[in-house]
Amino acid sequence: MADTATISSKIPFTKMQGAGNDYIYVNTLLYNVPDPEKTAIKWSDRHFGIGSDGLVLIGAPKSKENDFSMRIFNADGSEAMMCGNASRCIGKYVYERGLFKGDTVRLETLSGVKVLKLHIEDGIVKSVTVDMGEPSFDVPAQFTGTKPAGTDGTFVSMGNPHYVNFVKEIREIDVAGRGKELEFSPSFPERCNIEFAQITSAPTTDDQRPATLRTRVWERGSGITWACGTGACATAVAAAKTGRAGRTSDIIMDGGTLHIEWGDDNHVRMTGPAEFVFDGEMAL
Length: 284
Hints:
The protein is an alpha+beta fold. It has four helices and 17 strands. The protein has a 17-stranded mixed β-sheet that branches. The two termini are 22 Å apart.
């Protein structure tokens, strides 16, 4: 099917958002985007383009065992490995646009295959649970392994790198200034996603309620975003690892709340919304 894709002067797109993390989606089974880096920069501009956190390409999988593939390009044109919010939106897109009939989607990403469980009511995908895989605390070889000066954060990889900083009062943090500084820290030669998190409710060990954490994100390549799925997962895992919370958390971000469970099988599962914003056409 991908072989029949065509290049057009204008490309149909769909804008979607998950907890305010908004991306532009193109079905590359039908339409080619020959220069996605340049297109992401142009289309993502919030004054002269469509406006978004980046560009997502929905494509055919390399393996017959999987259903679709995802490539994601940040607003600055850099290619990201994974985005939890974008993957949820793809689940809603392929089901409600008639490209897929089941309730479990296998999605190929640069950080591996992600399994999407669609929660469907009356033909509408109300929410999506994504198996985000296992977290890693091993600092990748391309990073120095030294924490940025003046920080005591926790490094977590959810297929992409995150540095989670717990703070007493998140309203006092200059997310833009501090986030950009840490993203480009010498400790992270390939840059890093930065989270600032405040524990707002931490149940005792015998309390079954999830902990709640107010979290803000400086996303590598995009700046401040209203939500970040992998960032929410990294925050929940870091909180559990450092004894600040249990293995179930509600992560409250600027655009909404994501529910995170770090299971006994070591897999992290994220549940949250996905919504259509509008459809349109845009010149490459």
